[in-house]
Amino acid sequence: MGPAGAGPPVRLPLHRRASRRRRARRGRIGNDVCGIVATAGRLGPELDAILLALRHRGPDSTGSVVMATCALAMARLAIMDPNPRSDQPMELAGATLVYNGEIYNFAGLRHRLEQRGHRFVTTGDTEVVLHAVVEWGVAGACERLNGMFAFALWDDRSHSLHLARDSFGIKPLYWLGDGDGLVAASEVTPLAAAFGLRPRPDAIREFLRFGSPVTDVAYERVAELEPGTILTWHDHTVRIRPFAARSAGGATPAEAARDSIARQLRSDRPTALFLSGGFDSALLAAVAADTGAPVSALTLSTHDNSEDVRLAAETARHYGLPHEVVAVHEADLARSADAFLFLVARAAVDRGFPVALSGLGGDETLGGYGYTRRLRQVRRARRVWDRLPSGLRPGAAAALAPWLGQPASRLEAILDAGSAAATWTAWRRLFDDDEIRRLTGGVAEPSPRWLTDADASDRAQLRQLDFAVYLRATLLRDTDVFSMANSVEVRVPFLDPTFVHATERAEPTKHDLARLMGDELLVTRARARKVAFALPWPRWLPLLRPDEVLTTGGPFADMVDVTCARRLLADDARSGAMRGLRAWALLVLAHWLGREPAARRPAPRPAIRAA
Hints:
Elements (H helix, E strand, L loop, with lengths): L20 E6 L8 E6 L5 H8 L7 E6 L3 E7 L13 E3 L2 E9 L2 H10 L10 H19 L2 E9 L4 E6 L8 E5 L2 E5 L2 H8 L5 H10 L12 E2 L4 E6 L2 E6 L10 H12 L6 E4 L4 H13 L3 E7 L4 H14 L3 E5 L2 H4 L5 H12 L4 E3 L4 H5 L3 H16 L7 H12 L3 H9 L3 H9 L4 H8 L17 H28 L3 E3 L5 H10 L3 H8 L2 H8 L9 H4 L5 H4 L5 H5 L2 H14 L5 H15 L16
Parallel strand pairs: 14-15, 14-17, 15-16, 17-18
Antiparallel strand pairs: 1-3, 2-4, 2-10, 3-4, 5-6, 6-7, 7-8, 8-12, 9-10, 9-11, 12-13
Helix pairs in contact: 1-4, 2-3, 6-18, 7-8, 7-20, 10-17, 12-15, 13-14, 14-15, 19-20
């Protein structure tokens, strides 16, 4: 199997090294988070370069082991059992592990393993993962793990390297294979730098469609290990198979929410809660107060979100949580539309919190996005739209545009869409296929992630797409990148498998869950209309230097028709379409390509060769 999906095994010639050596280094040089590197077959100098590039993820300690056909390395964040005895790589019974993540049910698994005769020398979760693999195999262990994880494990008995990733893809893992072997790492940029990889044209087209590459990562030859899968490298071949995470099948949404949040509040290090004025983080605060967990709340403040800050302060007071409001500068926010994630993580670590809880996933599991209500309105409006003569449709779209919050030109495409999934796609996209074709000379093929169950309800289809496209391709990637850049472990209780499955069965709204929790403040927050942070595009866009960046030369012009880009942005400026988001996407792409060395390198040799 190659990185893009199903296919024949890939043959990887082996370069053997007869020795086995271990290196370890400890000492805090800043804050900390985890990063892993694994190689099979190729044992070149890239291992050290990639590990050095990942050091921001875990500078508490680093360790590596080099074997005959495999090398593993780790930069560690010491959250559970912050003691040298839990440093990695960790070995047991011929298995060697490097692991990134947090297992919330490790205490229960440890007890079961002890009953089966296993003996432990640490108190953390890494050793539990290792013993679980020895006892139940890689797939059996992954099925039993409740948490976020990505790991690489070398099995000396079968001479196999296994890569695995949690079922929702909370923790990332990227890999590439070529004629020399296989390499995997927690971040894609060090892989691209180590092997001189170029940006992938279809990934750029997907970025223009949804603001993030959906099907592929940004670079050629690199694949993202799919969530809920195990990659096995053995005897020159790569195979990928899925696993199914277990959940407590009978739990109600309220029971699952309480249990998940309580589990993820446990930590051996100081923990913060990212608090806004909304329902999701208020629910985290409510459970923290009920359990007596020692957490502190953090809220970012700008001159545009004073009401959200007021509500967050009210929530913190109600539940008796220590609360700090952190003022941020607009110039910092303008660097990225997702800069809140970076800045709140930086605020946490600056205040001594290497662990934080986030309400990420609450909108996907509980149908909290405002556009889901709008899409239901579109479905109702379509009953009339489908009976209108084509000549009357532009006028009808212009009349409906203020009601549905979309430009008239875009609304026509939305109303012409058929299924709920097609409507979602038309609503969410930044540029349509014709615009992308004019900008880049082509259009990326639709991703399998966009496929939904045609027999499912409209809400179920929207949920599937929110999870597969927006949550996975944008929110989880951004959360990992920005939190890891600040060496903060962000936990996401609303993506606990039991909670996700409970909400999938019952389809509760936030108001339903608030009533089930029996908390009046939560009911008040759930009733309030969700207010998105209004991005001040007229003030932000000049900070990205559009006249300087959108030039007719350089890497951006090699990938994008600059004249077409300028024309589209001028049309948007006149009409107010997308409120500057399309301009921001093009400018961020231009900045990224301008500083990306690989964009200026010649194309590398072809990647994987099939057997």
